[in-house]
Design brief:
Number of helices: 7
Distance between the termini: 39 Å
Shape: globular
Order of helices and strands: HHHHHHH
Strand content: under 5%
Structural class: mainly alpha
Oligomer: single chain
Radius of gyration: 15 Å
């Protein structure tokens, strides 16, 4: 099963309904993106998703929002418990595939695993941030 089919099935199972993005919180908007990334970026891949999220982060910060500020540090503190020079996309890969060598091409199953972990951890990060705010 390709990634777009996988995530299309996921949205059907979740019962999420797509609504006007301007009325959503940051967490709600990114949950909509996570449910159907291919709808937002055309083709679902780890690279496409991380590029979208980087762009989202930059746009949010330029507009005065928090974007993904603190996500990397949160990953280090809560899921790796050690220092790393990787940016958050590399940290997600380390968490999702601890045995992966970062040189071998990712299989479709590995890409799915990385995206599942990314969307889960991002939602948990945003949920914790909502509580603090």
């Amino acid at each position: 099963m390709d990634l777009d089919t996988h995530f299309a099935r996921r949205i059907r199972e979740s019962g999420l309904k797509l609504i006007d993005p301007n009325s959503l919180t940051e967490r709600e908007y990114l949950r909509q993106f996570a449910a159907r990334p291919g709808m937002f970026i055309g083709f679902t891949s780890v690279r496409g998703v991380t590029c979208f999220l980087d762009g989202y982060d930059y746009a949010a910060r330029r507009s005065g929002g928090p974007g993904l500020d603190g996500f990397r540090d949160w990953l280090l503190a809560n899921h790796l418990r050690r220092q790393s020079n990787f940016a958050w996309p590399g940290l997600i890969k380390q968490i999702a595939l601890p045995e992966w060598d970062f040189e071998t091409d990712l299989t479709p199953e590995q890409e799915t695993q990385i995206l599942e972990v990314l969307f889960d951890l991002l939602d948990r990060f945003l949920a914790e941030r909502e509580i603090v705010d």
